[in-house]
Amino acid sequence: MAISSQITIFLCCAFIASLSFCSVASVPELQRLKYQLSKVDDHGSLLSFLVVGDWGRRGLYNQSKVALQMGLVGEKLDIDFVISTGDNFYEDGLTGVDDPAFKESFSNIYTAPSLQKQWFSVLGNHDYRGDVQAQLSPILRKLDKRWLCLRSFIVTAEMVDFIFVDTTPFVNEYFTNPKNHTYDWRGVLPRENYLQNLLKGFESALRQSQAKWKIVVGHHTIKSAGHHGITKELEEQLLPILKDNHVDLYVNGHDHCLEHISDTESQIQFLTSGGGSKAWRGDIKWWKPEELKLYYDGQGFMSVQLNEVEANIVFYDVFGHVLHKWKLSKELDSDV
Ligand SMILES: *[C@@H]1O[C@H](CO)[C@@H](O)[C@H](O)[C@H]1NC(C)=O
Ligand SMILES: *[C@@H]1O[C@H](CO)[C@@H](O)[C@H](O)[C@H]1NC(C)=O
């Protein structure tokens, strides 16, 4: 029920967005979806969700074990939805809307009742190596109504705005030195236009946001001590916008680990949840100890619970054991 009403809102928004996009092409706006909160606590509305990244391997590399624990934690927290930070299907995304990997790596894996909620997904670099439009296709939403993957979009949930950003097209290497990989850049070229519109839409969404919490989700790292480390292009182009607009959390995957970097130069918490399946790469770079609150080189996932005044972030391993907790607080509005 909840899912189908959200989809209705989505289709309606997509229609409006495409209309306004056609008539005023110079003002690129990100698609906006509304999520209706249904739970309350002492501080008003309450929202909880799980974050998993870098997962689709037909259950292998502990993907199924992570899924099982997500189901248990999801039930305990009575989650509203799940966020996927991308690299949804390995190694090379989906071959098309009829690729059995969709069922074998998604529908048949995340089977717990608590995970039968909306999934909001972004694309990772591995997803761009397949038929990228398949993952964005409404046909997949018919096969499994939980699925919703878009390039860049906003989910507004009262006290929180989530801004999902398509980070793969920012990375120069995929264009200049793609190695033996083929990337599906349909919808992205010409790249300069795509990035310019994306950045404008992204910045304007953050600038206009009145929400108490601002959470940005992308696939690539901005700050990370892991295998891939810092993504220079995002550090240069996205990070200043995050700082200027008081973003609370930047949530990503890409590095196959669980990680929390608490920035000392801004209020931003950098959270990596890329432990959905294959992990244990064993290469960790040095990072300022006063910022690095967690680095776990194995599988797992993250939960976030938030209300008007508090956000609680928890990381779990493959057994569901808590690896790390972090609490953020906000002042109550003085005029309330
Ligand atoms: C699965 O998880 C266990 C516990 O963390 C770990 O020892 C094992 O190496 C993992 N298996 C794979 C294939 O990563
Ligand atoms: C590309 O593929 C060829 C043939 O399979 C292989 O010999 C070569 O090492 C590959 N190059 C890279 C950069 O992976």
UniProtKB/TrEMBL annotation:
Keyword hit for Secreted: yes
Location of this chain's protein in the cell: Secreted
Alphabetized InterPro entries for the sequence: Acid_PPase, Calcineurin-like_PHP, Metallo-depent_PP-like, Metallophosphoesterase_PAP
Record domain Calcineurin-like phosphoesterase: where: 48-257
Residues where Fe cation 2 binds: D87, N125, H219, H254
Predominant location category: secreted
Cofactor(s) essential for the protein: Fe cation
Record-linked CDD domains: MPP_ACP5 (cd07378)
Molecular function in Gene Ontology: acid phosphatase activity; metal ion binding
First and last residue of the signal peptide: 1-26
GO cellular component labels: extracellular region
Entries under Pfam families matching the protein: Metallophos
Keyword Secreted: yes
Broad enzyme group: hydrolase
EC number: 3.1.3.2
Swiss-Prot/TrEMBL keywords: Glycoprotein, Hydrolase, Iron, Metal-binding, Secreted, Signal, Zinc
Reaction(s) the record says it catalyses: a phosphate monoester + H2O = an alcohol + phosphate
Cofactor note: Binds 2 iron ions per subunit.
Residues involved in Fe cation 1 binding: D54, D87, Y90, H256
UniProt-listed PANTHER family: PURPLE ACID PHOSPHATASE 3, TARTRATE-RESISTANT ACID PHOSPHATASE TYPE 5
Family: Belongs to the metallophosphoesterase superfamily. Purple acid phosphatase family.
Protein name: Purple acid phosphatase
